[in-house]
Every structure is written in C-alpha cells, then in structure tokens.
C-alpha cells in the first residue's frame, strides 16, 4: 500500500529519471524568487543531488517528493525543510510546475497528504510555510487548509530591485 496516496495524486521519492524534470524546474527563473536560487544548476550537480536524495530526513533535515497523477505524471514538487525533531516542527514548500494542473486541487491534496504524514508518521507538532505577500494563490491555499497567518517578515525577499514581505503560516497539530 502506498502511504502517501490521495484520491487523485500520490507523492513519491525522487528517482534518477526525474533529472530532466528537476533541471527544468530548478532552472526556471519564475520560481527563483521563492526558492532562493540565484544561478542555474547544472545537470551534473542535480544528478549528484538525486544520487543522495534517498538519505533519511533525520540525517539531511529535508525531504523532497514528486507530486504525481495516478497515471504517474510528475506535476510538481513538495518539500519538507528545516526538519527539527527536538522542537517537533518542519517547514513546507510546494510548487505545482505544470500549469495545466493548477487550481484543480492538486496542491491542496498534496499538502493534506504531507501534513498527515508529518503529524501521524513523523509525530511532529507543527508545520510552517513561508509565502510571499503577492502570492495570492498560495495565501488562499494555505489559509483554506487550516494554516494560520502568524507573522510577517518585513522586506524579507529582494527581487528585481524591490523588497517584498514574506508571510509566515503555521499549522499546529492539537491532537484533535
């Protein structure tokens, strides 16, 4: 049985065959603002990354998963980062890179699946997400899924000569 499976999508580990997908995604300047990327990645570096992607979240403090249709088409990535088992928290990021799959519930289902994993398998207390102030779709998505806006990091991201605020969203597992 696939643990990270929903009704319309499933999440899976990165595979060597994902190199071209990862290369296109990581080298797309449209997402550099949210990923913190400042220069392109080579296929060599990404291949090295994929060779080490199997490492345990407790070792590398992150987990990156492909968002796939039930037919196996990769439509995006969802990440856990800054895993902190002592304080029982982790950050989450998501990108649905295939535009045809946006606004269809793919992101919501992926976040729901991963939150369930974080709370029930990893036993964490909270998940947080950082969203740029002008990213209305993500603000709506995280709010709809029960994440609370708990703070604003003023002038946090510099892009194209302008500073933007970043909103901190948090979802706490209250055992309900």
UniProtKB/TrEMBL annotation:
Domain annotation N-acetyltransferase: ranges: 9-170
Protein name: Acetyltransferase
Gene3D superfamilies hit by this protein: 3.40.630.30
Lineage: Bacteria, Pseudomonadati, Bacteroidota, Flavobacteriia, Flavobacteriales
Pfam families: Acetyltransf_3
Membrane-traversing stretches: none
InterPro entries: Acyl_CoA_acyltransferase, GNAT_dom
A molecular function (GO) term: acyltransferase activity, transferring groups other than amino-acyl groups
């Amino acid at each position: 049985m696939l643990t990270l499976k929903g009704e319309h999508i499933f999440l899976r580990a990165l595979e060597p065959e994902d190199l071209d997908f990862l290369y296109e995604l990581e080298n797309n300047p449209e997402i550099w603002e949210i990923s913190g990327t400042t220069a392109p990645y080579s296929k060599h570096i990404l291949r090295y990354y994929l060779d080490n992607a199997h490492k345990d979240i407790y070792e590398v403090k992150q987990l990156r998963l492909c968002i796939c249709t039930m037919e196996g088409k990769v439509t995006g990535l969802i990440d856990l980062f800054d895993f902190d088992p002592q304080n029982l928290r982790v950050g989450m990021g998501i990108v649905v890179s295939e535009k045809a799959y946006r606004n269809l519930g793919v992101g919501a289902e992926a976040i729901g699946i991963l939150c369930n994993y974080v709370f029930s398998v990893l036993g964490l207390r909270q998940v947080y997400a950082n969203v740029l102030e002008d990213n209305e779709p993500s603000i709506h998505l995280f709010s709809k899924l029960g994440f609370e806006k708990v703070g604003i990091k003023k002038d946090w991201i510099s892009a194209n000569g302008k500073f933007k605020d970043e909103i901190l969203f948090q979802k706490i597992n209250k055992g309900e």
